[in-house]
Amino acid sequence: MLAQEFGLEHRGPLDGIEVTGVTLGTGDLHPGDLFVGIRGANIHGASYAARAKEGGAVALLTDAAGAGIAADAGLPILIVDDPRGALGELSAWVYRTAGSSALLFGTTGTNGKTSTSYLLEAVLRQLGLVTGLSSTAERHIGELTVVSRLTTPEASEMHALLARMREAGVRAVAIEVSAQALSRHRIDGLIFDVVAFTNLSHDHLDDYLDMEDYFQAKLALFDPEHGKRGVVCLDTAWGARVVSESRIPVTTIATVGHAAPADLESAEWVVEVLDERPVYTEFRLTGPDGRFLITREPLIGWHMAANAALAIVMLVEAGFELEAIGAALEGDAEHEPGIRAYLPGRTERVSGDRGPSVYVDFGHSPDAFENTLAAVRRFTTGRTIMVFGADGDRDATKRHEMARVAAQGSDILVITDHHPRFEDPASIRKTLLEGAKLAADQPLETYEVSPPEMAIRKAVSLAKEGDSILWAGPGHQDYRDIRGVRTPYSARDEARAALREAGWG
To answer: Would residue 86 count as lying in a domain?
Structure first.
C-alpha cells in the first residue's frame, strides 16, 4: 500500500507486508519497521540491510545504488532517488502525523532555540495544556522525559515522537529546529502553526560555506511548506532579512537597548527589562494597541527575557489571548509570579549559598559567551572566572573569536577540553590560547588545564566568596566524545564535587 500510495519502484514481493514504523538505524529497529538505507560519508546504509532483516525489518527503502548493495539481503526493496528527501513524507504517512491535531511551534536561530522552546512549553503548561518538547537537551511526552541525541531528530524519529505524543494526549508541541534539520529534511512532513527566529551569529561554518549559506538554511523554515505564521526577533540585523524574505506572514519583536533604533521603532512587539535578580529577570512585553504584559522568567540575562517574550508572542500568534497568558503567569499561594521553567544546563547555578557562584552553560559560540558572561558579571561582586573548551571536528573558524570574547568578559580564564572527538585536544587548546591573547592590552591570568575534571577544580581553587565561575560548553550533556567513544561525564556533578572538596558544601 505504501508503494502504491507514493508510486514507488520496488523489487521483491510486497503482498501481505505491513509497515508499522520507520528507522535509519539498526540500533533503533523494531519488528515491522521499514529500514531506510542512505548513502553516508564512508558507507552506504543499505550495507546493513541483512542485519536489519535479522532485527525484524520487513522492507528496505533506498536508492538505486543501495538496491544493488542490498540485493541479496532478503528484504523487498522500495527505490527512490533521494531516500532522505522522501523520509519525512513517508514517515508522516506511516505514523499518520500529516494532519496533527496538536499545535506545533518551531524555533530556529543560532542561540536561544532551546531556552525559547522550554519557556514556551512552560507557559503552555501553565495555561493547562498537556505538552510535548523536542530540544537539544530532552524530549518531553507529557510527563515523560527522554534524553536527546540530536538537536532535531531525523524525520522518521520526529514523526514517531509525534505519534507517541498523540497517544499521550499532547495538545501542543515546542520543537527546536536546527539549520542542519532544515538542510537534511528532518522536519519534512510537518507544518508548524507558528515558527520563530531568534538570532544569527557565527557558528556551524563547518557545515555551511559562509554566513549567507547558513542564513539561507534557517530561512527555509519561513516557507509555506514548513510554517503558517512567523515571529521574528530583530535584535540582530539578520532578523530584518528574515522579514523581507519570508514567504509566510510574520510579526516582529525587538528588545530595548539591544535592537538597532530603526528596528526597535518598527517592531510590533517590544521587550523591556524592568528588574534583574539572581533568580529571575522581570520584563514588560508591549504589543499592538498598547497591550502589555509584565512577568518574570527564571534565568539571568536580558537575552533570556527576550527568549521568553518571543515565546509569548508565538502563543499570541497561535490564537492565545495575551490577557489569558498574563493570568496564567500570575503567582498564587504555592508559586511566585512568572514562568515556571527549569532549563537544564542553561546558565544553571549549581552552587550553594556559601562560596563562589558556579554556573554551567551549554553556550558554545562567541555571541553566547558574550551574553552569558555579561549576565553573570551583573550579579558578581568579585571576579568572574571562565572555564571553557571547544568542540573537536566542528567549526574551527570560531575558536579564536570564542576565546577573545571569553578573555574580554572575564578576569581569569581556565582553558580546557570539551569534546575533542578525533582532533588533538592539545591543538584545540593552543588555538584557544592564541585567541585569548587577542583580547587584552595586558596579559590576562590564564591557565591551561586538562582534563576538564581538573580544570573546574583549578577554577574553584582560585575562587573566593563573591566570585563567580562560568563553565561554558558542556551544559546538560552527560558525556564527552573522545575518539568516537561517548564517555559518561557530567559537568554539573563535577562542579558540585569540586565545591564540596574545597569545603564550600
So the answer is: no
**Do residue 379 and residue 245 come from a single domain?**
no
- Please provide the distance, in angstroms rounded to a whole number, between the alpha carbons at the two ends of the chain: 63
User: 105: number of CA atoms within 13 Å, CB side?
Assistant: 32
Number of Cβ atoms within 10 Å of the Cβ of 381: 9
- Residue 344 preceded by cis peptide, ω within 30: no
pTM for the model stands at 0.92
H or E segment and range at residue 176: strand 172-176
Residues 48 and 127 both lie in one domain: no
Dist. CA 262–CA 235, nearest whole Å: 11
3-class secondary-structure state, position 13: coil
Of the candidates 386, 417, 413, the residue with the CA atom closest to the CA atom of residue 481:
417
The three grid cell numbers given for residue 487, joined into one nine-digit string:
564517555
Is 57:76 a contact under the CB 8 Å cutoff?
no
Whether 256 and 109 share a structural domain: yes
- Which runs of consecutive H residues, i.e. helices, occur in 329-486? 366-378, 399-409, 425-436, 452-462
36 and 62 Cβ atoms separated by less than 8 Å? yes
Write out pLDDT tens, residues 60-93: 999 999 999 999 999 999 999 999 999 999 999 9
Q: Establish how many alpha carbons lie within 13 A of residue 474's alpha carbon, considering only the half-sphere containing its beta carbon.
A: 31
**The total number of structural domains that make up the chain:** 3
Whole-angstrom distance, CA of residue 168 vs CA of residue 263: 42
The residues, any chain, with a CB within 8 Å of residue 99's CB and separated by 6 or more, are: none
Answer yes or no: do 77 and 202 share one domain.
Answer: no
Residue 183, helix vs strand vs coil: helix
Q: Are residues 66 and 139 in the same domain?
A: no
pLDDT 10s digits, 281-315: 999 999 999 999 999 999 999 999 999 999 999 99
Q: Which domain holds residue 442?
A: 348-501
